[in-house]
Known about the structure:
28% of the residues lie in helices and 18% in strands. By secondary structure, the chain is α+β, with helices and mostly antiparallel strands.
Amino acid sequence: MGTGVPPSHKVLAQVASSEGVSPTDLEPPLHDVxxxxxxxxxxxxxxxxxxxxxxxxxxxxxxxTVRVDSTGAVDLTAGDHLPDSTGDSTEExxxx
Length: 96
């Protein structure tokens, strides 16, 4: 993973930097969206398992689509949301 900084910490640092706030001020906390330790373990195991191809993990966090690859690189795309994987919508449904 190169720098020794866990990918979950890189995600927090990049989002906080983009928004001009401290990582501790981000709401919701990252652990409410994904399991940060599982992300770190997955990236670590993918990085060790395959040097020929890059695996990418993608998830929504705040106003970003976050992409973490098996090299530990983190990329944020603002306003590019993934579909809700649960099928639930954040919009209110009005059954008239």
